[in-house]
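Fold this sequence, please.
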Amino acid sequence: MAVYVDAEGITWRGRSWSHLVADSLEELHEFASTLGLQRRWFQSKSLYPHYDVTAPVRARALAMGANGADREIIVSCAKRMRSEMIAAYKTSLSEVPDKGIFYVRPQNPSNAAVSS
């Protein structure tokens, strides 16, 4: 298992940003936490799940053992993590007991009987 960070250098809000990914979600979140990243910063809704990191955080990640990576490695890891997220979601759905669907139609006041 490994953690990877690219040198993308995307400029946003006056800073240079890169992408942090890993071979597994668990490893990525553990490493990100050690780096001081908050879980809510995880880009889970993007096509390629990742953490965005600034240049100084990227340097710390490399010093802590992350591997420098090109776009191909970053995208490959992100696709695996996305598949992992989808599988976990499907598993969580299958663990919910099927109790059927219960629907109550709200009463529309304009259709209610009027009594005087």
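Residues 3-94 form one domain. The helical segments are 25-35, 55-63, 71-94.
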